[in-house]
């Protein structure tokens, strides 16, 4: 299915199941197919799952329009409004989690049921007061590092069904990193730590113990800064936690949902 944003960009999404809405946001360059195990588990448990490909990735339109994290947040706001989603649970990996933080910075969190951040540090750049950014990214090497391929995101091989579904989706709709590079720069410049301290809804960070992108110690630090924050570090997992360790990830996810009556 497709959704047209206010600036005329087509976003592809799936809408399956019934019940409380869960909106899924994939990381940079990814496809919504990577969430296969979570879509199955959530719909079986009685949730409605709306799984979106962001602009410039997956099956959504590739365009020069709106290459900023704020525009991604506006896309999310328009999507929630279009389908009149009440108290949705937002679940995002990597850049998808940053989209959630940008959304909260613009619209607040009172209308959101919960936020779940999957292996995304709130600040990508390392400096004197933050050492949990992306790899060795600093203000001094910012352009040099981000103009290079981001490198392998996983620690474990994905389960066969998810691997094949994701591979097919990316083959059909290849990611254009050069086209979307201005967006990557904009995303990487942001600092969402202050936004996290304002969250009024339950907040969970699920980090990968072996993430090649982020030191998992960012998770307790930021969870403790939120009023209703918690975290889980999944062992033997890289950056794509939900697809590398789906059983452990889903257990952490459903424990959080149950603990917060969601």
Q: Can you tell me about this structure?
A:
This protein is of the alpha/beta class and 262 residues long. The chain has a single domain, classed as 3-Layer(aba) Sandwich (Rossmann fold). The protein is built from 10 helices and 8 strands. Helix 1 (36-44) links the parallel strand 3 (21-25) and strand 4 (48-52). The longest helix has 14 residues, at 69-82. The two termini are 26 Å apart. The relative contact order is 0.16.
Layout of secondary structure:
Elements: E1 2-4, E2 10-16, E3 21-25, H1 36-44, E4 48-52, H2 69-82, E5 89-93, H3 95-107, E6 114-118, H4 142-146, H5 160-172, H6 181-188, H7 193-197, E7 203-208, H8 218-223, E8 229-234, H9 241-244, H10 246-259
Parallel strand pairs: 3-4, 3-5, 5-6, 6-7, 7-8
Antiparallel strand pairs: 1-2, 2-4
Helix pairs in contact: 2-3
Organism: Ligilactobacillus salitolerans
InterPro entries: AB_hydrolase_1 (IPR000073), AB_hydrolase_fold (IPR029058), Carboxylesterase_BioH (IPR050228)
Domain AB hydrolase-1: 22-252
CATH superfamily: Alpha/Beta hydrolase fold, catalytic domain
Q: Treating each run of at least 4 consecutive H or I residues as one helix, how many helices? A: 10
What is the chain-wise order of helices and strands? EEEHEHEHEHHHHEHEHH
Per CATH, what is the topology? Rossmann fold
